[in-house]
Amino acid sequence: MNLMLKQIIAGLIGAFVLTIIILFSTFLVFPLDSMGQLFHAKIFDISYLLLISIVVTASGFIIGASSGLYVKGKLHFIRDRLEEINKGIKLTEKATGKDKDLEDIPSQLLQIERKFSQQAEISQRLVTERAEEREKSLQEVVVQERNRLARELHDSVSQQLFAASMMMSAINEGNPPDDPTVKKQLQLVEKMIDQSQLEMRALLLHLRPIALKEKSLQEGMDELLVELRQKVPMEIDWKIENLQLEKGIEDHLFRILQESVSNALRHSKANQLHIMLIERDDFVILRITDDGIGFNVEEAKTNGSYGLQNMEERASEIGASLKIVSVEQEGSRLEVKVPIRKKGGNSND
């Protein structure tokens, strides 16, 4: 039962009870000779009981409906403010209003918004501190081993895959066999080698040092995407603004980019990849779009995709929201929105 119906019923009941009390008091002061007088009494040629019934019903309905609309309006006001807080929109005194009936609720909403802002700031600061500690405590031997393994894979397995791909391409284009079955199998082998090359590049992307070190986020992303553009058969373009962010936020955004690009190389079969990093309305927005085969997002989450889980955890650690939209055979889009806070919990103006 909705709020409006409840208020109308309450109004009808209240009006009915009030009418009974008034009639009872009236009959005490002006007693009737018999109850028959009550049934035959008329006002303006209308039965007294009928008139009372209409007045009671109309009054109860009007009072209940008015009360319902009033209460519903107040609840909508509170709901809208809470929704703004949930979306990370900064409340203002004007937005909270000055309704006397709500008394302290507007100020309490502002306090809740400030607490959320402070928690987001603390979370971002903790992430930054942890990122700096991880970078300082990272053992040099681990970095060297990762580099050595990536270098050997690139110089040996990757080069062999490239050579095999060139040979299969030459066979299929230069002197293909007459047997259709063999020809189809050779083409399948060529596709498998090409896919293995993409898998290898994705693996090398994970093996390379993922810390930005002394580079800015823009410099690190530019370097990564320039290298990918030279090595993968995919059209890659990007728009990356030079933003001044805390170290922890930069590190997590860079890792989300790596994970997303790696997934695109291995699974999307895309021809185009577009990356955008901008700051708008107190939010840093990282958007990665491809025109690949797409996938079922809910199914991937249900199956416990490590890549998606990893990106969601990183977004959560910096107080960001992560949204993935994918349509099969049309492509996918990943968007990360990070609220940027000034010290003291206020958004940038």
Percentage of residues in helical conformation? 55-70%
Give the strand order of the largest sheet, numbering strands 1, 2, ... along the chain. 3-4-5-7-6
Structural class: alpha+beta
What is the number of beta strands?
A: 7
Write down the oligomeric state: single chain
The pLDDT mean sits at 76
CATH architecture level-2 label of the largest domain? 2-Layer Sandwich
CATH class of the largest domain: Alpha Beta
C-alpha-based Rg, rounded? 35 Å
Unreliable spans are 343-349
CATH topology of the largest domain: Heat Shock Protein 90
Distance between the termini: 44 Å
Number of domains: 2
Number of helices: 11
List the secondary-structure elements in sequence, H or E. Answer: HHEEHHHHHHEHEEHHEE
Can you identify the CATH superfamily of the largest domain? Histidine kinase-like ATPase, C-terminal domain
**Percent range for β-strand residues:** 5-15%
Apparent shape: elongated
- Could you describe the largest sheet, including whether it forms a barrel? 5 strands, mixed
Give a written overview of the molecule.
The protein has helices at 3-29, 36-40, 48-86, 93-96, 105-137, 140-174, 180-207, 217-231, 247-268, 297-302, 306-317; strands at 42-43, 46-47, 235-240, 272-280, 283-290, 321-327, 331-339. With 349 residues, it is α+β, with helices and mostly antiparallel strands. It is elongated. The two termini are 44 Å apart.
